[in-house]
Amino acid sequence: MKNLLIFLCAALLFSSCSLKDKEFSPEPSVKELSWVKEKMNEYSACTCITIIAEAKYENETVIEVSPADPACNGISQVYNKEGNFLFSSINTGKYADYMANRTERKIVWTCSR
Questions:
Q1: Which one of 24, 27, 32, 64 is most buried, counting C-beta atoms within 10 A?
Q2: pTM for the full model?
């Protein structure tokens, strides 16, 4: 039993060392995604302040493109990380659920006039 315990501890030690040797490549920043870059370019000459925000919703990273200018009425759009449209603020029920349940929201880009 003692030999088995020593073997298991040694195996655990060596396997944890080999994990450290593996290269860690973090997920790219939302701003580095090609479709987000296109949205940033599209809104760069904004007349109404527009933001791009990253958030968690239903265990998924989502990207929100929203007007942030109180003088402008606009439609917020929510996409998955691949750039597929999920829903907008026109779908009031889904958007209300998103607003109530999104977490870890952070603004990653704002257009400047």
A1: 64
A2: 0.73
In three-state form (DSSP H/G/I as H, E/B as E, the rest C), the secondary structure along the chain is CHHHHHHHHHHHHHHHHHHHHCCCCCCCCHHHCHHHHHHHHHHCCCCCCEEEEEEEECCEEEEEEEECCCCCCCCCEEEECCCCEEEECCCHHHHHHHHHHCEEEEEEEECCC
Buried/exposed code over 100-110 (b: 16+ C-beta within 10 A; e: otherwise): eebeeeeeebe
Q: How confident is the model at residue 17 (pLDDT cuts 50, 70, 90)?
A: very low
The alpha carbon of residue 91 and the mean position of all alpha carbons in its chain are separated, in whole angstroms, by 21
Mean pLDDT of the chain: 83
- 63: Cβ–Cβ under 8 A, 6 or more apart, which residues? 30, 33, 36, 52, 53, 54, 55, 78, 79, 80, 81
